[in-house]
Design brief:
The protein contains 16 helices and 2 strands. By secondary structure, the protein is mostly helical. A two-stranded antiparallel ribbon has the order 1-2. 60% of the residues are buried.
């Protein structure tokens, strides 16, 4: 194999490598943002209740969260390009199965398979950029990746809404197939292979399987429990979930190379940052799961109008997140991590004004702007706070853990919140019933976001004056995911070597 120094962004091959990772991540981003918009149409077409629609979202998030860290480990051991391409192919096949699903159970199963593909391709996307490019170009490459994949998030609701207007919801999944073909063609020809020479031993398959089983049992109990009045099967599922989670923690504590290094949680700041992550992303995931349904069922929006109604969130984050990261590098993350969630809470409360006669300019748009400002304020400092508490050599796994915490928070929030708000069964088809439940849900989400801000104020500490900024606090744009159901790439991991060595096969 030919050894080569890091790629340059200005070269043709460098641009091809960036294109492959952007298209791979963008494919997943696009899929995530369009599914929420399509939920009412899917429910009506397949004649299912709200719990099945919850599973359409959580089935994907469950396997993504369970196998995300394992996917990163597989790439380190067996080749990041190889695992990335396998993930893209897996995701494409699962997307085709989603499009062909004749009923809800098969659609949910296909979505779970999509999550596995996402767990394989997601860590590889940024890892390829991190290991392929010269350190001098790495910051610009990550910034370009962030902005371009953010565009996929921005256009996703528009594309999904348009497809729903002119055709079937099944096309939102078929859209992934030509993108996957393009990613595979570019990757095979231009992306260099890289591995972690220090990654030895077998992957933690047992940890991944136990984590998936625990999350599945927990999700089943939390979704089906309220709908079935907590019958014995759901109670048993919750007990099994607790036992499996305990077994998972015991297993990880005894492994020499665990999927989840528990030693990271010895840092109180790392625990605090992930606590804020859990509360904020839990609120956001549940909220954005319900907003498109509220706009279509109650306010009478078309799928296209509902899809683009929250576009200001993405626009503001694309414009402001880099500046927020730069500010956090100067003053520390505590203020922004406190104020941002409070703004999000205010925005969520503003959306309680949305009803059957709500005007977009006076009800939806102000709330979207406030939530967008809150997210723009919070996301980059929050990621930086999580990474700045661990040694540089552990930044990659720390970013993966923080990413996984966000996914798990979204998974559990989408499972729990509708029941807490009194939404169940066919309520998503009934304007009056869903409207009442949505207003309750918005208040609950606002309280959860408020809790994230209070937690940050009480627990997050800024670096001492004169302390050099941690690399995680660099003012580069962070990958931002307002939908929280889309595939997310882990934040940039710090490199332990000045010049990466990659192999061209």
């Amino acid at each position: 194999m030919l050894q080569m120094e890091g790629l340059q962004l200005g070269t043709a091959r460098g641009r091809w490598v960036l294109l492959a990772t952007v298209l791979g991540s963008g494919m997943a981003q696009l899929d995530g943002t369009v599914v929420n918009v399509a939920l009412p149409r899917i429910g009506n077409d397949l004649s299912v209740g709200l719990s099945s629609l919850q599973w359409v979202i959580t089935g994907y998030t469950l396997t993504l969260a369970a196998f995300l860290l394992l996917g990163g480990g597989l790439g380190d051991r067996y080749g990041r390009r190889k695992v990335f391409m396998i993930g893209v192919m897996w995701f494409a096949v699962a997307s085709a199965l989603c499009a062909a699903a004749p009923n809800a159970p098969l659609l949910i199963l296909a979505r779970a398979l999509q999550g596995v593909g996402g767990a394989l391709l997601t860590p590889g996307s940024l890892a390829i950029l991190q290991t392929s490019f010269h350190p001098d170009d790495r910051g610009r490459v990550i910034g370009a990746w962030s902005g371009l994949t953010g565009v996929a998030s921005a256009i996703g609701p528009f594309v999904g809404g348009w497809l729903l207007n002119v055709s079937s919801w099944r096309w939102i999944f078929l859209l992934n197939l030509p993108l996957a073909v393009a990613v595979l063609a570019v990757s095979a020809r231009h992306v260099p292979e890289s591995r972690d020479a220090s990654a030895v031993g077998r992957p933690d398959w047992a940890g991944g399987i136990i984590a998936a089983a625990a999350l599945a049992a927990l999700t089943y109990g939390l979704i089906e429990g309220p709908a079935g009045h907590w019958k014995p099967p759901t109670v048993v599922a919750l007990v099994v979930a607790i036992l499996l989670l305990a077994g998972f923690l015991l297993l990880e504590s005894r492994r020499r190379q665990p999927m989840l290094p528990l030693g990271l949680f010895r840092s109180q700041q790392f625990v605090a940052a992930n606590g804020v992550t859990f509360a904020m992303y839990g609120a956001l995931s549940a909220f954005l799961f319900l907003v498109p349904v509220q706009l279509q069922t109650v306010a009478g929006y078309t799928p296209l109008a509902a899809g683009v109604s929250l576009l200001p969130l993405t626009v503001l984050m694309l414009l402001l997140s880099a500046r927020s990261g730069a500010l956090a590098a100067q003053i520390g993350p505590r203020l922004q991590m406190t104020v941002g969630p409070l703004l999000i809470a205010v925005g969520m409360l503003l959306l309680t004004r949305v009803g059957a006669d709500g005007n977009y300019l006076t009800t939806v748009l102000p709330a979207a702007i406030v939530v967008g400002l809150g997210l723009s304020t919070t996301v980059a400092p929050l990621t930086a706070a999580a990474l700045s508490t661990v040694p540089a050599e552990n930044a990659g796994i720390a970013s993966g853990v923080n990413n996984d915490v966000a996914r798990t928070a979204g998974l559990l929030a989408v499972a729990v919140l509708p029941g807490l708000a009194g939404i169940s069964g066919d309520d998503y088809r009934l304007a009056s019933a869903f409207n009442t439940g949505f207003h309750h849900a918005a208040v609950i989400c606002a309280v959860l976001a408020l809790a994230a801000g209070v937690l940050a104020a009480l627990t997050i500490r800024n670096p001492a004056r004169g302390t050099p900024a941690h690399p995680a606090l660099a003012p580069e744009p962070e990958p931002v995911r307002p939908s929280c159901s889309a595939l997310d790439g882990a934040p940039l991991a710090a490199s332990s070597s000045p010049v990466p060595t990659v192999t061209s096969e």
